[in-house]
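Many groups now describe folds with learned vocabularies. In that spirit, our science desk offers one protein's residues alongside their backbone shape tokens.
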Amino acid sequence: MPHMHSVQLPDDISARLTALAKATKRTKSFFLREAIERSLEDLEDVYMAETAYEDFLKSGEKAIPLEKVEKDLGLAD
């Protein structure tokens, strides 16, 4: 069963969404779902990477230079 959510949009974005829905004869909900689906994976990647980086900084672990990792894995030229 779908969940209902509420979001407030600035007037200019709301007007664009309304115009798009009217021009395509689709619902505004359709386009909101589409926009969320297309961007959610990117947002997850960004915020999860930021969280992992913050956790790394707090851990006090030392970073390994990329050149060393490449050499150890046999990827260095």
